[in-house]
Amino acid sequence: MRLVGVGWYIGISILLGIIGGSWLDSKYGTQPLWVIVGLLLGIIVAVYGVYQMLLPLIRSKNNGEDD
After folding, report:
1. pLDDT at 50
2. In angstroms, rounded to a whole number, what is the distance separating the alpha carbons of residues 39 and 16?
3. Residue among 61, 53, 59 at smallest CA distance from 2
4. What is the secondary structure of 2-65 as a DSSP string?
5. In this predicted model, what pLDDT tens digit does every residue of 3-42 receive, in sequence order?
6. 49 half-sphere exposure, CB direction, 13 A CA radius
7. Is 14 inside a domain boundary?
8. Helix pair angle (33-66, 2-28), 10° resolution
9. 25 domain residue, yes or no
10. Structural domain count of the chain
């Protein structure tokens, strides 16, 4: 069930980054600067979050193989 949440987390992180960047671009008239920055930040947040979500699964698998 945890893996279903991973897909949603990735999608929402990237989407929020793009939406935030689009809003900043419309506010400051700097298109597409902030959309690109928001996309990159969304990807970074998504990768870090996925790593944190899957780390317990990786650890439990490694601990199970050592026994």
Report:
1. 92
2. 8
3. 53
4. HHHHHHHHHHHHHHHHHHHHHHHHHHHT-TTHHHHHHHHHHHHHHHHHHHHHHHHHHHHHHHHH
5. 778 999 999 999 999 999 999 999 999 999 999 999 999 9
6. 18
7. yes
8. 160
9. yes
10. 1
**Is-cis flag, bond preceding 56, omega within 30?**
no
Give 40's contacts (C-beta < 8 A, 6+ positions apart).
Answer: 17
Question: Is the Cβ–Cβ distance between 20 and 67 less than 8 Å?
Answer: no
22 close to 38: Cβ distance less than 8 angstroms? yes
Task: Extract the tokens encoding 21.
Answer: 């960047």
Query: Other CB atoms closer than 10 Å to residue 26's CB: what's the count?
Result: 12
